[in-house]
Amino acid sequence: xxxxxxxxxxxxxxxxxxxxxxxxxxxxxxxxxxxxxxxxxxxxxxxxxxxxxxxxxxxxxxxxxxxxxxxxxxxxxxxxxxxxxxxxxxxxxxxxxxxxxxxxxxxxxxxxxxxxxxxxxxxxxxxxxxxxxxxxxxxxxxxxxxxxxxxxxxxxxxxxxxxxxxxxxxxxxxxxxxxxxxxxxxxxxxxxxxxxxxxxxxxxxxxxxxxxxxxxxxxxxxxxxxx
Length: 227
Fold this sequence. Notes:
The protein has seven helices and six strands, in the order ααβαβαβαβαββα. By secondary structure, the chain is an alpha/beta fold. It has a six-stranded mixed β-sheet with strand order 1-3-2-4-6-5. α2 (21-34) runs antiparallel to α3. The longest helix has 17 residues, at 46-62. The mean pLDDT is 97.
């Protein structure tokens, strides 16, 4: 399946029935497996992602799909998704399953985004190289000898390596923007208070912000509009 760089490209093919959300999601799952050496993902939510994709395909037929229909998105492993594990890349929380959704997750799902998995990060989002995860380093997809930046390095590497169309990260002092610059993608830290932090495991509550990582400015703007 071809590599997509924007949601508009994806939706064009969805509306033409060239692809389906299920096929698209399966292709990303396959790519994640093929590039697992990058260590960008800590877990792929294969079952729930494919179920959501199936639901979105049905909505597309009925012309009731949300504005993020076809967006396969990953979330940093410090953002809560009900019924799914979240560990902030720490063995302290290994095996813990979230009891509720972060506000940003609720809003993504409401607009029919497909959450494909949780991405590696510096432990409790404290770091700038993604070498401080309890589950191993993330590699820069452009040059595995270099770091991807951090702490949202897994989310950024996943987008840069086309393992998902977009991702969410968190930024306290540069943790979205710096790795985005290292890996050549768009990373945006919203103004404090613009996006709810409810459901984000805190590093520094008065600085933390959740923001998008994408291939295009248009997709970053669209995700911001939703969250």
